[in-house]
Amino acid sequence: MAMGGGIMDYVQRFQNLQLHRDTGDELIKDLLLYTERVESGLRAENQQLLSRLRDQELDLDDARKSRREFQQQLQQLESTNGLLLQDNNHLKSFNPYVVVLIDGDGLLFKETFIRQGLEGGKRAAYALRTAILSQCGDFANNIEVVAKVYANLAGLSKAMRRDGTLDSESDLRDFTLGFTQGKATFDFIDVGYGKERADNKIKGEVSFESRSVPSLMVRAEQTKWNLRNINCKHLILGISHDAGYAPFLDELFQDHQTSSRITVLEGFLTVRELTSTGVSILNLNDTLFRSEKLVDRVCIIRDPTPPAASVGVIGAPIPKPTTTSNSSSSAVTATSSVKSPAASATSTPSTAPATTWAAKAVGGNASPPPQITLPLQPKPVTTPVRAAQAKPTPPPWNPGARGLDTPIQVSQSALDNIKKRKDSNKLCNNHYLRGPCAKGDACVFEHKYKPTKDEITAIAFLARLNPCTNGQDCEVKDCIYGHHCPSVRDGVCTHPYCKFETEDHPPNTKFRTKSHEY
User: Fold this and answer.
1) Which residue from 203, 193, 151, 212 is spatially nearest to 176, judged by alpha carbons?
2) Cβ proximity of 108 and 243 under 8 Å
3) Chain centroid to CA 174: how far?
4) Is the pLDDT of residue 410 over 70?
5) What is the residue-wise DSSP string for 392-445?
């Protein structure tokens, strides 16, 4: 190392070293201050974290305690729910039954059962129960059959006697007693005289709302009550004969689960209005029910004047007159006009035998009528014709609470056009008279045709020929169905197959045909 240089070099070098040392001290001082600030901040943050940790530990303990309580409650609820499910399943399978509701005014048991009276009723009940259980498959041993038949027994017995099915009304009464006694769950109920009382018993009210007519408030809701009962596995309705049930089924079939639980029991061929709803049909005609409707085999309209052939006037030998030839001719004429019984019996073979009520009253073994001797031609007796007296106009007929429907004047040509449409080509009444059909494309009737105004009137006229299910109790202002027979003209029902009951016609109405359906 060179020894050169003066003292000032060393002084300069010392000053430089001192300057570096001061700078290092400042750095260390700044570092210490920074470290102190950082440490203080960390210490405060640590205290906050510790406080939060204690709070979280408390929350954790509380949550753990609550979770245990919830777990215990959940276990209790699961146990309770299991018991409830078990009870519910037990109640669902406890006393399951199938209910059979029959409109006895239309679905008729076979004549062989009814003629056997009490025993026939029991046999019919056993046969009906066996037939229904045969449709239940594996559940037949655990299910009960409840059957209720509703009918107007007085009207039904009269109709069956007019049909010739029933000899004595007591047979039908004994049959109903036997049917009721056959099984504890079977009843044959006489609903009495009235408009569609059997229908109302089966269908019941649409809702529980109060009505103005007292009789409506006491009707049993058989159908809907059973459908709301979970133990009712199936509902069988004996209504195949009556198209008036179609709107009722349409209402029930809004619920698909309900529609699968309903079957129509067929006696007469099921009417098209019911088959169009898609309801299942069960036919038991082979064993239980008759397939023919009752007809009135007694002529309702008779000619009250007996024919002249029933009046017997027998002549006797007349002594020959001794007067002029004119008198002789008169006597001969009188003699030829009244024949003896032998002459009448041996007359021309083409003479038809008398078949009137008066002729039938005279039997083959009856004594002949007294002989009347007429010596001369009887003079015609003239009776003065009295002037026809004006009869007082009877008061207008009032069918019930709703009154008379407004008459519909229809064009015959338009009516013929509508009647020509058959099957699926037939126009939908609800669509054209009430607005768009609720069934839409599922409806089996025509919706796309555009009828004229006269054809719309014709549709309304034909719809009016179908009885309303509520009759005079109907509260629908724009109801398209009839509430009394619209076919009565001059005291005679002109419809050959009238669907209305006798009470839906004015008193003393006569029917045009001999086979007026019951």
Assistant:
1) 151
2) no
3) 28
4) yes
5) PPPPPP--SSS-PPPP----HHHHHHHHT--GGGSBPHHHHHHSS-TTGGG-SS
Instruction: Tell me how many helices (H) and strands (E) the chain has.
Output: 17, 9
Measured CA to CA, the distance from residue 111 to residue 198 in angstroms comes to: 21
The answer to whether 201 touches 189, Cβ cutoff 8 Å, is yes
Distance, in Å, from the CA atom of 323 to the CA atom of 465, rounded to the nearest integer, reads: 73
DSSP letter assigned to residue 189: E
Q: Which is more confident, 94 or 17?
A: 17
Dist. CA 224–CA 206, nearest whole Å: 8
Whether residue 263 contacts residue 234, with contact meaning beta carbons closer than 8 Å, is answered with: yes
> For residue 507, is pLDDT > 60?
yes
Report the C-alpha gap between 332 and 376 in whole angstroms.
9
Which residues have C-beta within 8 Å of that of residue 482, sequence separation ≥ 6?
A: 405, 463, 464, 465, 466, 467, 468, 500
475: pLDDT strictly greater than 60: yes
How is residue 219 written in tokens? Answer: 């009707």
Question: Which residues are within 8 A (CB) of 355 and not within 5 positions of it... i.e. 6 or more apart?
Answer: none
Q: Give the pLDDT band (50/70/90) at residue 458.
A: very high
Identity of the amino acid at 518? Y
Residue 144: strand, helix, or coil: strand
State how far the Cα of 119 lies from the Cα of 176, in Å rounded to an integer. Answer: 10
pTM beyond cutoff 0.85: no
**Residues making up the chain, counted from first to last:** 518
Highest mean pLDDT among 61-70, 191-200, 339-348: 61-70
Q: Which of 216, 105, 117 is nearest to 166 (CA)?
A: 117
What are the tokens at 131? 């037939």
C-alpha to C-alpha distance for 167 and 160, rounded to whole angstroms: 9
Token duo for residue 92 = 């669902």
